[in-house]
């Protein structure tokens, strides 16, 4: 009896396969200048009956492109750790992307060779709420992009970062794999990560500590291989290993922080 119970879900999976030939359609609402993450879950594409778990051995890969084009729109990237893992579409839409974009996703079952299609209708609009003029980008060396895209690690990063800002809400603006900025793929034997850039924005000003770590003095120390001027407790450690030599701040106003004002080449307007 126990055996029957064990095998039934597997059988259902084999029969269901990636059966749906009609493309499913989902509407999503990315916001201009805010990070957008859409998870391509195996569940969604397997069209399993309810309460049937995805067998751990299922291999699925995805291909996504803008309708009528071979590639994704420039702002949107695709990543997947392995065919066992979910895929992610992520990025930060620019003002030119406002409006409708239709993304076609094809899932390939690597075991059964079945394919399933899904259409994602992206209605890209402007965010509501206050402007976020204070923006900072961090290089997190301990993680790959896929590891910070799910909502739990992302909000964990934001709440840990809260200690380095004047109180106020922080929002995720952009996530970029260090590989997309010229980083190198680490050798697997090194057990190291590719690294990920995380851009955060707030309506509240930076803490003095954050201004100091991004100051020309701090960058000069880094350039000489010395530790940066981190005057506060690293609230992100040990979970997130931030490279404090690679913090970039941007804000819309002329800098009035005197010696803490970044050198002009570090100043980037949002
Ligand atoms: C997000 O990051 C990517 C990669 O660094 C960059 O090309 C893009 O302009 C950024 N988008 C926004 C809205 O900042
Ligand atoms: C990926 C990386 O390490 N980027 C930069 C981090 O900051 C140092 C010092 O400013 C630069 O030398 C790196 O290129």
Q: Taking Cα atoms only, what radius of gyration do you get, to the nearest Å? A: 22 Å
Strand order of the largest sheet: 1-7-6-3
Distance between the termini: 63 Å
Q: What's the helical proportion of residues?
A: 10-25%
Low-confidence stretches: 1-20, 265-270
Please state roughly what percent of the residues sit in beta strands, choosing from under 5%, 5-15%, 15-25%, 25-35%, 35-45% or over 45%: 25-35%
- Report the major sheet: 4 strands, mixed
Annotation field: number of helices:
6
Q: Quick one: how many beta strands?
A: 11
Structural class: alpha+beta
InterPro entries: Cadg (IPR006644), Cadherin-like_sf (IPR015919), Sarcoglycan_alpha/epsilon (IPR008908), Sarcoglycan_C (IPR048347), Sarcoglycan_N (IPR048346)
GO cellular component, one term: cytoskeleton
Keywords: Cell membrane, Cytoplasm, Cytoskeleton, Glycoprotein, Membrane, Signal, Transmembrane, Transmembrane helix
Domain Dystroglycan-type cadherin-like: 27-131
In short:
With 270 residues, the chain is an alpha+beta fold. The protein has helices at residues 2-16, 42-46, 145-148, 151-161, 208-213, 216-223; strands at residues 24-28, 35-40, 60-66, 76-80, 87-92, 99-109, 115-124, 134-140, 170-177, 196-202, 248-250.
Describe the 3D structure.
This protein is of the alpha+beta class and 270 residues long. The protein folds into 2 domains: 105 residues, Sandwich (Immunoglobulin-like), CATH 2.60.40.2820; 135 residues, no CATH class. 18% of the residues lie in helices and 28% in strands. The protein has 6 helices and 11 strands. The strands form 3 sheets. The protein has a 4-stranded mixed β-sheet with strand order 1-7-6-3. Strands 9-10-8-11 form a 4-stranded antiparallel β-sheet, with helices on one face. A hairpin with a 5-residue loop joins strand 6 and strand 7. The longest helix has 15 residues. The protein is globular. It starts with a helix and ends in a 20-residue tail after the last strand. The N terminus and C terminus are likely disordered.
């Amino acid at each position: 009896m126990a055996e029957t119970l064990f095998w039934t879900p597997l059988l259902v999976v084999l029969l269901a396969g990636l059966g749906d030939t009609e493309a499913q359609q989902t509407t999503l609402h990315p916001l201009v200048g805010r990070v957008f993450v859409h998870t391509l879950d195996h569940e969604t594409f397997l069209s399993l009956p309810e309460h049937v778990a995805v067998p751990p051995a299922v291999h699925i890969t995805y291909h996504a492109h803008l309708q009528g084009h071979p590639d994704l729109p420039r702002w949107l990237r695709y990543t997947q750790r392995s065919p066992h893992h979910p895929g992610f579409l992520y990025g930060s839409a620019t003002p030119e992307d406002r409006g409708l974009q239709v993304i076609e996703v094809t899932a390939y079952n690597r075991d059964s060779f079945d394919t399933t299609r899904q259409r994602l209708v992206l209605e890209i609009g402007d965010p509501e709420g206050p402007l976020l003029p204070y923006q900072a980008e961090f290089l997190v060396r301990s993680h790959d992009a896929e590891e910070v895209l799910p909502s739990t690690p992302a909000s964990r990063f934001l709440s840990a970062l809260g200690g380095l800002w004047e109180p106020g809400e922080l929002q995720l603006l952009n996530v970029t794999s260090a590989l997309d900025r010229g980083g190198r793929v680490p050798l697997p034997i090194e057990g190291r990560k590719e690294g990920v850039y995380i851009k955060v924005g707030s309506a509240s000003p930076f803490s003095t500590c954050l201004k100091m770590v991004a100051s020309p003095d701090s960058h000069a120390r880094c350039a000489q291989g010395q530790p940066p001027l981190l005057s506060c407790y690293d609230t992100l450690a040990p979970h997130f290993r931030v490279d404090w030599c690679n913090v970039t701040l941007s804000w819309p106003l002329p800098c009035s922080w005197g010696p803490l004002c970044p050198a002009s080449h570090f100043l980037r307007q949002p």
